[in-house]
Write a structure and sequence with these properties.
single chain; alpha+beta; three-stranded parallel β-sheet; 9 helices; 42% helix; 21% strand
Length: 295
């Protein structure tokens, strides 16, 4: 959905659930005007299996009441469900001037910290993300939230560090191609420009797939199971490379029906070393799929 189309979205009035197909993961969109901690709700049915809560604060509005409601919820839920992680999206910061934006972000963080400290919570598990629908910060923030809920994240990061070093990638990611959220990256410092480049590349690939993609299952039905050509179709994975993208080479390799590996390289001889890169990525893919199967 384009950012300007969000103007026509109605306010959330009921719980909406969205399933992330690549893992046992659901996103629940809850109306902000309802107090789910009141006695009229069964809070255990809502929060007992929750791994993380995202609280969206409008930076352009009066945020004192939302902050008070958030801190109250954190205090209550911390006693009942201490494993829940909290993320605050300080939203609509893009239209503020640079100085006022930084002051607003600091003010929100300070007010939340002070209120939680007054309630006896000195180091609550709260992360803060300035977000906007007009750039990639909202996807970056969701990516960080999801990574905090992935138990295999250290394994993924170790594998990606190995691939980045062996193939001399500047930055590597595992993306969910439909949502453009990355579930893991190598442990080098996060670079929003690299993420934006990969996200734009995924958009281009998805647009091309809509035009020129093909149905594997339909093609497979034309051959018998013992046909070598059928086996090639089953094992075939999509791959794409674009060179000289803002001075970088972007390499994409499909991992399964939902995930893709994307690496950003500044190596001038990347094309000459592609055979080595393909071999290393194939080894990475085989290892990663075994990790995913073990869950």
């Amino acid at each position: 959905m384009a950012p300007h189309e969000t103007l026509f979205l109605e306010a959330t009035t009921a719980i909406h659930k969205q399933v992330m197909p690549f893992m046992d993961f659901q996103i629940w969109d809850l109306p902000g005007q309802i107090d789910y901690l009141s006695s009229s709700f069964d809070s255990s049915s809502i929060f007992s299996n929750v791994g993380g809560i995202i609280w969206v604060i409008d930076a352009q509005d009066n945020y004192l009441e939302p902050i008070s409601r958030f801190t109250s919820a954190v205090v209550t839920l911390t006693d009942l469900y201490p494993s829940i992680r909290y993320s605050v999206f300080i939203h609509k910061t893009d239209s503020l001037t640079e100085d006022y934006r930084e002051d607003t972000i600091r003010d929100v963080m300070q007010k939340i910290s002070d209120e939680l400290f007054d309630e006896g919570l000195e180091n609550p598990p709260v992360n803060y993300f300035p977000t906007s629908i007009y750039d990639h910060t909202i996807f970056e923030a969701f990516s960080k939230v999801i990574q905090g809920l992935v138990p295999q994240l250290p394994t993924y990061e170790t594998l990606l560090d190995t691939v980045a070093a062996s193939c001399r990638f500047q930055k590597v990611y595992i993306f969910d191609v439909m949502s453009k959220v990355y579930i893991a990256s190598d442990t080098r410092p996060s670079d929003l420009s690299s993420y934006e480049l990969c996200s734009d590349f995924i958009n281009a690939i998805m647009d091309m797939s809509d035009l020129y993609g093909w149905d594997r299952e339909r093609a497979l039905s034309n051959w018998t199971n013992d046909d070598e050509r059928a086996q090639d179709i089953v094992t075939q994975t999509a791959e794409a490379i674009v060179c000289s993208a803002r001075g970088n080479t972007v390499y994409l390799r499909e991992l399964n029906a939902f995930l893709a590996f994307i690496g950003v390289s500044k190596e001038p001889n990347f094309q000459k070393e592609k055979a080595m890169v393909d071999y290393n990525i194939q080894t990475f893919q085989d290892t990663l799929l075994r990790v995913l199967d073990r869950g």
